[in-house]
Amino acid sequence: MPFTDVFSLSGQYLTYRDFWTLVLGVYAGVVILTGTLLSVLATKYTKSPWTMKDDAEYRKRFKAISWSVGFFYALIMFLLALCNGLFVFGGSSIWIFLGALLGIQLVFALIAIFVPTPYLAFGIITVSNWYIAGSIFFLIQLPSMFDYAPANLTWLTSVASAVPMGFMAAISFIQFTNKDDATPWKNRFSIAIRKWGFWLSILIVVAISIVLAFFLAGTCISIYGPNADGSWIPFAGTVRWNSRMMRSISRGNPCPGPGPCHVYLTAGPDLTSSVFVNVHLPLNTATNLTIAYKAASISGSSIATEFDVPLIDKQDDRQVFSAYLSDLPSASEISFSLLINGNTSIGESAYYFKTANADGPVKFAVAGDGGITDQTSEIITQMIASRPDVGFIGGDVAYDNGFLSCACVWDDFITLWETQKIDDKYLVPISLAVGNHDVGVNDNNVDAFAPMSTEQCNPESILHARPLFFAWFPFETIGNSVAPICQRTTMRVHRVGNLTNMWVLDTAYTVSAEANVDYVNSVMSNSTLTNFAVYHVPLYTANVDDQDEGVYLQQLWPQKIFDKYNFQACFENHAHAYKRTKPLVNNTVVSSGGTVYMGDGKMGIAGMAVPGDSKIVAPSPDNVFANTGTEYHFFSISIEASGKVHIDAINEVGTRFDQQDL
Known about the structure:
Number of domains: 2
Largest sheet: 6 strands, mixed
């Protein structure tokens, strides 16, 4: 989890961006308060070094030692601030760093007061004042760093944040060039402003501060993305950071044209007859986009709807179109082409996909917890090699943490998916369940998502704009049109004729666990079909560190959803391990019937929060597990026309290491 307890919040009511902003802001604020107290006390109880007796040897003896201690103080404060950023992003408690900060400030305040060396006090006070100015700088630029301020106002926060640094440069110049404490500050200032060095020092410090503020603006914090495009700064574990400036320099325009930068499919409600076609085009390419499609027995066209994401970074901006194709023939090859502005072809001459067979057999591929890694790429290759009708990802797809500034990792993931085609020809539709790193909130914490709910969603407000998980991946319609971004949900069912349903559920990220129960009860029309579910947080996990996370789901979903409607299997994620349970009814092992819970989400992640063998619960007669491990995996699910189900667990090199017949 990227949250640890701070002010008894533990992430409640906060998105990941809000929490990280709070943590860094609190740390900077404490530096300001403790530094001010240190400077006031040290100034009051010590003398200026310039009032020392006129003894060259005496001065020389203490000056080097004193400034060495001051440098050591500066170094410790810098390393502590750096570690706070590195490790709080990675999940460590801020209280460790706040406690260390208070201890360091207290020690050096006592040194400044009680060690009878005025040079020493002067050095410590000077360092402390610079850290106060630096912390004020950091607080002022923080809204631009985390995009609370519009990108076009970065210049304003940069200039404003440079003011305290320029002020400190002026004070330091006066202190070091006019050592007569008896001279009033007004007179010392009048003398200083007539020196070119005074203005040059201010100019240099202000310029560096403005550049640094621009460098920090537009933060993206991603996890499990060693292969993500562009330049990144690694933090604790597998956390990586970059900024708008870094992305614009190292990545350039991700959608340069002249053709589409992405063409991919998202799964429709009826997998035998519907699909969403999604197309990303360079800005100002098309006033409209038409999807012209045909099969052996039909042909038609659909005008795509454009969906704007106003708050995306300018270098990531593009035209995003989605079209809903319905009433397609079952078990058919469908081809489509892209026509812009009426009749101008763009992209490939034809794109292809196949609809599922309403009578069976049908095949699904299910995985979860990806990231931009070699293993994710390998698992996707194996998923497509299994020739599925649809691919399902059970959350934590690209690990953008809900940041609109992290469009880069979604571009990378979409590229990984769309470039893998069955027989190098057929696109495979994808359906995504929501995970914590897709929307930037913890599970069972819907209050954090409330500002982005359908009722409050506003794409033009940074507090109410939805992440790209919603904006770029439509799965629902209103009428026969693609649902607007603010109307899209995280619960849905994909049907295959009278054969099977795949339910995509939300483990209390954007709606409550109870709302999922209400949704299934309201939509379930035929409980005799073969039912499966995919979602993020596991009810049962083999990872000992995560076994308490799904308790709230264990108490609700089996009895009110899975047992009630005879679900055959549920595909779980989030815990970064592997498991297959014995058949369960009401959390109890049964000899016949029941639901098998499979997976723990290990599609591509590696490193931090990935358990080793010692953290995995071994199967035994005393627990619910039939098989456990740490394999990278996806599931290939085959449903025959008779309703017989076979599930293979397959690793990144294509080896089947577990299976289940239902």
